[in-house]
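Case study B.
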Amino acid sequence: MEIDRIDGRSPNQLRPLACSRGILNRAHGSASWSQGDTKVLAAVYGPKAGTKKNENPERACIEVIWKPKTGQSGKQEKEYEMILKRTLQSICILTINPNTTTSIIIQVVQDDGSLLPCAINAACAALVDAGIPLKHLAVSICCCLASSGYVILDPTKQEEEVSVFL
Amino acid sequence: MPNQTIKLGGGLRQDADVITVMKAGRLRFLKPNKYWVESSQKRYVPRVDDNVLGIVVDTKADNFLVDIKGPAIAFLPVLAFEGGTRRNIPKFEAGTLVYVRVVKANPGTNPELSCTDASGKAAEFGPLKDGFMFECSTGLSRMMLSSPTCPVLEEFGKKLSFEVAVGLNGRVWVNAASPATVIVVSNAIMKSESLSSTQQRIMARKLLEKVQ
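Model:
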């Protein structure tokens, strides 16, 4: 049974992807990642000397700051920061530069669904641009369960809002 | 492949039996057995025997603290100068630009620098006065120091007289008699990162026509 998505895509089809590296002048690494209309800008600074108080000095520390498009940072942003931090800690080689901090700042430029995966992809591209040693590259995609019982990939904001499960 | 000892340089890492790559860049090979990944970054990874441009941040009893754009701040021992003794310690203020050589660079510790070459002579290391310092990527510094001479520097060297110090950590210092020369040389170097050698010569010639 063909499912009708608003923009005419098939359930497994992604929106057009675009990525640019090295766009910010002052950041040590930067990338912008867009999936359709969702666009996220990631900047990497570091590694810089010194870790935060609770972190292990034998390993490098990763700090994530998520800036929403409008308004203050709230609980949703803190949750995104934590998820990103755990993901990036698993792909970075933390033992190479002990006792340093790498800061990653995510700025949401436009949000049209599938925001967190777009940010993970942008952060990974920015880390590669900055030359931070990585074990693997991180790739992520968003899928949601539509009300008709189908799983669709890369939903837009409208599809996310009517979905049963994200 | 028969049993061989391979030396892995920067950007490569050995994980039990597998050799994986850590950074994006070009894989280079030097006979007989050296492999490394050449990449161009804004930050610098300190390596022994690199000539870098550092900025003095602070003075301690035994060391100057020098920033070389790496993960940790570097130490320049107060006695690491030609003919350096406790009586004639140079006075560097915060913000002095120094041309130094990396002596020790281990992953967990602060790198150590020196203002003498391997045999103990000064060899143009030391503070740089006047002139203009700008930052570039490590790939551009490597290209400027490679042989044959970088096309931009060669073309400008035929008509203008200037002094240039290139640090492998992505810092370049240019000095000349007139500010106009300094500006035109610095701008040309900054623009030449993505150009091929013919394009660099054409750009250098166009700029020279405008200046003279």
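Chain A has one domain: 17-139. The remaining cases will be described in the next quarterly update.
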